[in-house]
């Protein structure tokens, strides 16, 4: 029986690493109610069997989590993204200069910003660019660079160089996953650009609906700095929200009907 129980646990570890991305020894130990040394032995065996790849402090699936396209994501969690966008837009005042990341949630924010008078919007995302291209009274700049077809956003040295020419009142970033350790994305070019964007802004916001909190679907990371603000929606698990607040991240929870709850 114990051997069968161990095998079931190892099978479940592989499943979790495949569906959720990175798995840490600490999290797996808590999930299965066993010691960290037991989890490390499990991971060593699974690595030997070729079922997982070891990482520092944990493991990841050998098959990368597939990155979905912006077109696939744009209809997901529509109400949540709209609530987040409205809460984010409420932070922006007339005449400000804002920096907008790529992604569907930031694109929803761009739609909400169309009526902000005297706004200057700088973006790396085609969605935000399309939303603001015909907005009256708004100045729109695109950083340019190399287009990533899946995310419909620009990355690379040209985008990075353009960032050195301007500063921003606020930067609004997206992410594929958010934990207290950072923002998770599909490749390092995206995470490097996010870090550079954040350095150029007075205030930094991360827009992510509840399903993205605690997720580690990929293996490229940008730091999530204390003092930044996460805007999420009412579907976010309270434990995950509190973990972020404990790391010094201000969290705004925007509900489609419930209003907005803000807390540092």
From TrEMBL:
Keywords, alphabetical: Transcription, Transcription regulation
Pfam families: DeoRC, HTH_DeoR
Listed InterPro entries: Carb_Metab_HTH_regulators, DeoR-like_C, DeoR_HTH, NagB/RpiA_transferase-like, WH_DNA-bd_sf
UniProt-recorded Gene Ontology molecular function terms: DNA-binding transcription factor activity
UniProt key word Chloroplast: no
UniProt keyword Transcription, yes or no: yes
Top-level lineage group: Bacteria
Ranges of residues in domain HTH deoR-type: 6-61
Protein name: DeoR family transcriptional regulator
Lineage, broadest ranks: Bacteria, Bacillati, Actinomycetota, Actinomycetes, Pseudonocardiales
């Amino acid at each position: 029986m114990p051997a069968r129980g161990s095998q079931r646990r190892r099978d479940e570890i592989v499943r979790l690493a495949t569906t959720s991305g990175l798995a840490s020894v600490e999290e797996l130990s808590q999930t299965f109610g066993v010691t960290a040394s037991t989890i490390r032995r499990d991971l060593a065996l699974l690595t030997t069997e070729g079922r997982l790849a070891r990482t520092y402090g944990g493991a990841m699936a050998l098959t990368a989590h597939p990155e979905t396209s912006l077109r696939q994501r744009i209809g997901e969690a529509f109400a949540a993204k709209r609530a987040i966008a409205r809460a984010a837009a409420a932070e922006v005042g007339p005449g400000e200069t804002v920096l907008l990341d790529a992604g569907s949630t930031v694109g929803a924010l761009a739609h909400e910003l169309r009526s902000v008078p005297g706004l200057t919007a700088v973006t790396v995302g085609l969605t935000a660019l399309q939303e603001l291209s015909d907005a009256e009274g708004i100045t729109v700049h695109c950083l340019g660079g190399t287009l990533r077809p899946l995310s419909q956003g620009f990355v690379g040295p040209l985008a990075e160089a353009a960032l050195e020419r301007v500063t921003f009142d606020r930067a609004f970033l997206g992410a594929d996953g958010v934990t207290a350790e950072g923002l998770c994305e599909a490749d390092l070019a995206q995470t490097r650009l996010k870090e550079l964007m954040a350095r150029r802004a007075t205030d930094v916001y991360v827009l992510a609906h509840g399903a993205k909190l605690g997720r580690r679907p990929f293996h490229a990371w940008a730091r999530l700095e204390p003092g930044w603000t996460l805007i999420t929606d009412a579907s976010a698990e309270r434990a995950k929200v509190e973990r972020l607040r404990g790391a010094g991240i201000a969290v705004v929870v925007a509900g489609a009907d419930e209003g907005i709850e803000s807390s540092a």
